Amino acid sequence: MRLNLSNGSRLVASVLTLVLSATQSRAETPVCVESSGLRHCGLNGASVKETGEGVRVESQDPSVKGGVVIHTEAATNWTAGMFIEGVGDEQTSQTVFSSTSKEGNTSTATLEQVNGEVGYSAAFVRGGEKSTYSVFIYRDGFLQASMGGIRSGETLVRSVPNLDLTPTVRPLGMTYDDCMQGCIRLNCGGICAHLYNGAQRTLPGGSREWQFDVSHPELHLKDGRVVEGDEIVMREELRKSDRQPQAVGVEQIQIQTTAPVIDLRDENAAKACFSR
Asked: Rounded distance, CA 108 to CA 122, Å?
């Protein structure tokens, strides 16, 4: 029998195409896990796994910002404790938190770390237009400083390491071992197991805000003031005419970082009941 090599070659090529397509499809499909009643999916090739305490996200490619998408199903209040680890000796990283509502309105909070200093900024977009925002700095629940009329994306507050001031939680980017080693002299080892807490909320009327712990309590404001704080809130400024009778929550939260590991714990998402 004479074999038709042309037809055989086409058959082999077709089979290889199907195999490669299936392999590529599996590679591009993000891995998702359930934790705290929320669906978490890897972003930009990052892997996600349920740890029993929460979700661990590990980036596979240091050249891109890996991360996680959290499906919050119109939640008006999302909170989580986290460790963001492994930024290296230079203590330089960028972590971006973002939220998206069903209407397409977005909010973003960026934590930009350079040589251990952390700059905080936010951006809010509603109906395709950028909103201004206000910043509030608290210490043990009491307001220490505030600023308003800040342009979206502008950084006005920086957290600066000071050896005379004990950190309030494990510094952003540090592993537990690095934190314990650095705290030997300051006797602050107890803070190394404390989670770095973050939150995104939709307030009555529809204004959105991001809230984060501050690792290093010395905060430098762009207007020259230096205050001590342990918490920062960045809140969207909303005109009366844009306020909503019923606040609309967010469909998803995204976290992207140049750091290799995000460890999420104590996560919660809920719809608030607002009285009218």
From this structure: 5
- Cα–Cα dist 77/199, whole Å: 7
Six-digit token string for 159: 């957290």
Which H, E and C letters describe 62-126, residue by residue?
A: CCCCEEEEEEEEEECEEEEEEEEECCCCCCCEEEEEEEEECCCCEEEEEEEEECCEEEEEEEEEE
Q: What is the H or E stretch that residue 10 is in?
A: helix 5-28
Q: Is the distance from CB of 229 to CB of 137 less than 8 angstroms?
A: yes
Nearest to 251 by CA among 120, 150, 105, 131: 105
What tokens does 22 get?
Answer: 């299936």
Query: How many Å apart are CA 110 and CA 198, to the nearest integer?
Result: 12
59-113 pLDDT per residue, tens: 877 677 899 999 999 999 999 999 888 765 556 788 999 999 988 889 999 999 8
**Rounded-to-integer distance, Cα 175 and Cα 167, Å:** 14
